[in-house]
Amino acid sequence: MKILIVHAHPEPKSLNGSLKDHAVAVLEAAGHRVRVSDLYAMDWKAAADAADYGPHASSPLKVPLDSGRAFEAGELTADVRAEQEKLLWADTVILQFPLWWYTMPAILKGWVDRVFTYRFAYGVGEHSDTKYGERFGEGTLAGRRALLSVTVGGPESHYAARGINGPIDDLLFPIQHGILYYPGLEVLPPFVVHGADRLAPERYSAVVEAWEQRLLTLETTEPVPYRRQNFGDYEIPALHLKEGLEPAGRTGFALHLQH
């Protein structure tokens, strides 16, 4: 496989840094090719602005349209073009990050904001009475897999179905479904390390062993069964899930799972 790891933690000696380094070692030892975008080490610019689009920036700035024009002209900034090339090169993408304030660190969100431009990650395909663009199961990045590797400070019970922080699957849904599945990536179940702030040495060994197993089964793990947008489950153009497709009583984000 060709694997891109996008890493977002400011401390190289952190748990996240260790998991990233271990992933590189395990995957390369298994014969895979690995590239790493270490966002803090790269001093990644997080804010999308007119400078990203050069002569294609309008006044007032229109981020989607301007980014699309710059992308199609091949005139996005060099750092953004390099990350898009990495995504097209890879067949598997791993996002390695700590859960901060219930989401990804700002630098990683900024990577998404700048790299997932119009005409690259969204705004592709036909829009008609039967199809609403190529997204949610189709798109530029279709045929690739993605995995979130996330460290969480609190214990697992805080993120359970009745936990005060909400279910971890719900917290990660905007990233997994809204960022990764949207442009076509198949999303694997996340690798989540709870209690990361108080991880004892003996538990670290268990975490590393579990992480190795996830890495060595990337090709065979079944993805999260999200519904595809243009294949009959949704009314178009309303994009409402058709009545009766969900199991009785199912609501919320889980409506968008096939089973």
From TrEMBL:
In terms of InterPro entries, this protein maps to: Flavodoxin_fold, Flavoprotein-like_sf, NAD(P)H_dehydrogenase_qn
Q: Which residues form the Flavodoxin-like fold domain?
A: 1-215
The domain of life is Bacteria
- Keyword Magnesium tagged: no
Q: Which Pfam families match?
A: Flavodoxin_2 (PF02525)
What Gene3D superfamilies would the database entry show?
3.40.50.360
Which UniProt keywords are present, listed alphabetically? Oxidoreductase
What family does the Swiss-Prot or TrEMBL record give for this protein?
Belongs to the NAD(P)H dehydrogenase (quinone) family.
Q: What is this protein called?
A: NAD(P)H-dependent oxidoreductase
Give the species.
Kitasatospora saccharophila
